[in-house]
Structure formats: C-alpha cells, structure tokens
Specification:
It is a single chain. This protein has 17 helices and 15 strands. It folds into 2 domains: 221 residues, Rossmann fold (3-Layer(aba) Sandwich); 154 residues, NAD(P)-binding Rossmann-like Domain (Rossmann fold). It is of the alpha/beta class. 52% of the residues are buried. Helix 2 packs parallel to helix 3, helix 8 packs across helix 9 and helix 15 runs antiparallel to helix 16. It is globular, with a radius of gyration of 22 Å. Strands 9-8-7-10-11-14-13-12 form an 8-stranded mixed β-sheet, sandwiched between helices.
C-alpha cells in the first residue's frame, strides 16, 4: 500500500488543485440550500464545542459534505477527510477543501489500493472522533490501529449499511467506542433516505443512460426508506413499479402503496430497470441475470456494490463493452445484453451528484450536533450504538421548518395534562 507524503503545504491527495476555484463556487451554491447547517455553523463559530478535537471523516466528498466539514472546522475541530466510495468524489470539491485547510484524500475513480491508502492517511492524523459513511473508518481503526483507541471518544455513522455493521460489532462485543447512528434520526432517514435517494437515484440512472422511465417496469429491490423513495419517484415518472422484499410487513406496505410484489426470480423476467437498496449481499445474483430480458439495466443505490453479483454476470457473459460513461454492457452467450451502471456502486453519486443539498441540510445538521454531543458527553457513554438524542432530532426539524417559513401548533396546558393522564375516558 502506498504511503502518502505528509509535509507542510502538501497535505491531502486530490486529482488537481487547480479545480479549487470551481469547487469553492459549487460549495457556496450548495450552502445556500442548507439553512439549518448554516445556523449550526454560526453557533459553532461562537461556542467552539469541538475545540481541540481531531475528527477523522470517511464520507462522500461532495458539495454538501464540504459544508459539513466547514461547520465542524468552525466549531474548533481539526478535520481530515477521505472518500467513503471510490466513485462518489467530486474532484473540484476535494481540491477546494484542501485550500480551506481541511486535508482531503479523495480522487474520483481511485483504485482499491488508493482508497485504503486514503483511509490510512486520515487514520494517521490520530483522530479523537470518527465520522463514517459505511463503517470503513471504524473497521480500519479497530482492525489495524488498536493503539489509537485509548484516545478515541466516539464516532458518528451516516448510513444504514454502516449502522448494520456497527450493530454487528456491538453484538460481537468488539465495538471500540460509542457511536451515534445519525442514520436513525427521523430527520435523517425519513427525508435523506426517502426523498434524497428517491430523486438522486433516478437522476443517476437517467444521466448514465438517458432512458425513458415512463411505461417501463422498474424493479425496486428492498422496501426500506430508500426503496420507498425510489419506488414513489419512479411511479411519479410513469414507470410500472415492482417491489421485491424478504420482510412480510414491508411487502404488505408495498402492496398497499399500489405496487406489485413478487420474488426476484419472477421480477427478473419482466424488469426493464433494476435498483437494489437493501444493504445485503448478492440480492441480484447470477441466476437472476440469466432470466433478464435483452437490454435490462441494473444498478445499485445501496452503500456497497456487493448487492450485485458482479462476478456472476462476468461468468455468464461472452463480452463486455462500455457504450456510455458509467455503463458496462455485458453480452450473454445467447445474444441478450444486460447493462450494469457505475460498476454496481451507488449510482446516484457515481453517475450523478447525489442527494440535493436541501435534504442533506438536515442529515448534516444532525451529524454536526451529534459530534458536539459526543464531545460533551463521551465520558458517560458506553461502547454501544446510540440513536441521535430526541432533542437534537426535534431541534433539526424545528430549524428546518423555520427556514421554510412554516409554523405549527403547540399543545395547550389542558392538552399536555390530557396526554399525561390515564383517568380521562369516554
């Protein structure tokens, strides 16, 4: 694994420092749509709740993430950043962040060796706190750098896949420090996962293929919050939506929402576009690829590309071409063609720009406030996975409504008393 040089004036590893001016402009554009995070930034700049704390972040390097990094920096933190996915980096943003004094290690399209070298570069800063999107940073620190754990006070996790991995570590008794599951905040998963993933996934598919979704059959694999978002947005564009599930409760919900529900073996035969959003392994496998119609388009919007059995399709294909950027077209032995988008990685970030800033506003406000909470309360926390405290979740929602000029009702004293009473009845 290459060792990245760390010298004054040469901190970070990005594609081209000359892209920084474009990156600064795009970061400012996104920031204009993130009013809640801006309020957190202003508060942090005064209160400095993260003063003296080193934060190592492994996140998608986008304009929205840049605004989070700047808020953490305003709060007094020393921040370093690497990519949580080899294809999601926006190179101009990475360059700009280095100029803002935030060492950034991320290059769009970096190979696996470079990806992990970049994680190691962040680990080398000896962070007190981790900020993850997928648990790769926590896993690296635990597996290879146990000597750092004595000074680690906690971490935050952004996405469903990462929370699954962290809970598995907790179950096995190896979670190295307390972690707040930012993904579990209502103002994160109900909005980021549903509205953000729903819109950005279709955006990535369309940018990569220019396919018309109206009238086509879109198969959504998994009906969690991400799946709900993709299904609703695809239906809104005129697609016929099919859902596959393993959870009977979610399957019933999909039926009640108006979608056809069936096993993947059946869906594989009729789908035109397939989107996986499960966080699980090989939910579309070799046997499913064999059943797909000519011209089927397959993509993933979950965190890791192992939701798709990429070795399986390579095994049954006689050739592969790349007719468009982020499109790999496999020709099977009977002449049928199946397209895989963005190497099976998150299509919304690899082929598109990811979630809209207005959605990430709430997610990253939760991240920054959770980091401040950890800094203040870490001494009383155990090595477990915590949900975002309710008061933070509610504060983010309140600030978002205020930024939108929306007011809501409040309970009267009589209503408060009624809701706390057991004696009132018919």
């Amino acid at each position: 694994m290459p060792v990245l040089e760390q010298t004054a004036g040469n901190v970070g590893d990005v594609k081209d420092r000359a892209l920084a001016e474009t990156g600064r402009s795009r970061i400012a554009w996104a920031g204009a749509y993130m009013p809640v995070l801006k309020q957190v930034f202003d508060r942090f700049e005064i209160e400095k709740p993260l003063k003296g704390i080193r934060i190592g972040a492994c996140l998608h390097v986008t304009t929205e993430t840049a605004n989070l990094m700047l808020a953490l920096q305003a709060g007094g933190a020393e921040v370093s950043l690497c990519a949580s996915n080899p294809l999601s980096t926006q190179d101009d943003v990475a360059a700009a962040l280095c100029e803002y004094g935030i060492p950034t290690y991320a290059i769009k399209g970096e190979d696996n060796e470079t990806y992990y070298a970049h994680i190691e570069a962040v680990v080398a800063t000896k962070p007190h706190m981790s900020m993850d999107d997928g648990c790769d940073l926590v896993n690296t620190i635990y597996s290879k750098h146990n000597e750092l754990l004595a000074d680690m006070i906690g971490g935050c996790e952004e996405t469903t896949t990462g929370v699954i991995r962290l809970k598995a570590m907790e179950k096995d008794g190896v979670l190295p420090y307390p972690v707040i599951a930012v993904n579990n905040a209502l103002t994160k998963h109900m909005f980021d996962n549903r509205y953000g993933t729903g819109q950005s996934t279709l955006d990535g598919i369309i940018r990569a293929t220019n396919v018309l979704l109206a009238g086509r059959t879109v198969v959504v694999v998994g009906y969690g919050w991400c799946g709900r978002g993709v299904a609703s947005r695809a239906a809104g564009m005129g697609a016929h939506v099919v859902v596959t599930e393993i959870d009977p409760r979610k399957a019933i919900e999909a039926v009640m929402d108006g979608y056809r529900v069936m096993p993947m073996e059946d869906a594989a035969k009729i789908g035109d576009v397939f989107v996986t959003v499960t966080g699980n392994y090989h939910v579309i496998n070799e046997s499913h690829f064999k059943l797909m119609k000519d011209g089927a388009i397959v993509c993933n919007s979950g965190h890791f590309n192992d939701e798709l059995d990429l070795d399986g399709i390579k095994k049954i294909a006689k050739s592969k071409t790349e007719p468009r950027a982020f499109v790999e077209q496999y020709e099977l032995h009977d002449g049928r063609k199946v397209c895989i988008l963005a190497d099976g990685r998150l299509v919304n970030l690899a082929a598109g720009e990811g979630h809209p800033a207005a959605v990430m506003d709430m997610s990253f406000a939760n991240q920054s406030l959770a980091a401040a909470y950890l800094a203040k309360n870490h001494a009383t926390l155990e090595k477990t996975v915590y949900d975002v405290p309710l008061e933070i979740d509610e504060e983010v929602a309140t600030l978002k409504l205020a930024s939108m000029g929306i007011q809501i009702d409040t309970l009267t004293p009589e209503q408060v008393k009624y809701m706390a009473s057991w004696s009132e009845g018919t």
